[in-house]
Amino acid sequence: MIKEKEQNIHQQDTFCVNENTVTHQWYHNLKYLAAGVIFGIIFVKAEVISWFRIQEMFRLQSFHMYGIIGSAVLVGMISVWLIKKFKIKTIYDEPITLTPKKFNKGQIYGGLIFGFGWAITGACPGPLFAQIGTGALAVSVTLLSAVAGTWVYGYFRDKLPH
Fold first, then answer.
1. What is the pTM of this model?
2. CA-CA to 7 of 20 to 30 Å: which in 46, 90, 100, 141?
3. Distance between alpha carbon 130 and the CA centroid of its chain, in Å?
């Protein structure tokens, strides 16, 4: 019983599954910074970070955000299918493994809390930095709350039902 519980908890540690053993100099990470900046600019130009667009979505007044989210889900589905079908490897020739996840009711509760937070603040964790970068400094409170919530989850993780 205990071993099965530990295995289920460890199964959620997805960062261990595809862990990269290759080490690089610090400047190799600049490509990720550049990709993040470009992604942030795209978010700003597409109005994905707009509080008004997010409120329109939750009030069912506009298709804009649903179209963006739906197209992202579709691209993700196609990408996973291609990775599985052609056994695509990383750029360092390491295999990509996708482990199946067991459903539990905690995912529903977590999704509801996430959705309520998104609706109240008008910010999903992804574009928080882009919103701050555009000068919406009030979003810093949301960022700090997200960090605090992550810390609280990490602190109580072993006591929560998984």
1. 0.71
2. 90
3. 15
Proportion of the chain in helix, strand, coil states, percent, rounded to 5: 65, 0, 30
What is the spatial distance between Cα 64 and Cα 67, in angstroms, rounded to a whole number? 5
* Tokens 């908890």 found at: 9
What is the CB-side half-sphere exposure of residue 162 using CA atoms within 13 A? 18
Residues 6 or more apart whose CB falls under 8 angstroms from that of 42 comprise: 48
Tens of pLDDT, residues 23-79:
888 898 999 999 999 998 998 999 998 888 988 998 999 999 999 999 999 999 999
The structure tokens 């555009």 sit at 134
- Nearest one of 72, 153, 73 to 106, comparing CA atoms: 153
Query: Residue type for 142, please?
Result: T
Task: Find out whether 90 and 20 touch, Cβ atoms under 8 Å.
Answer: yes
Closest CA to 43 of 143, 113, 146, 132: 132
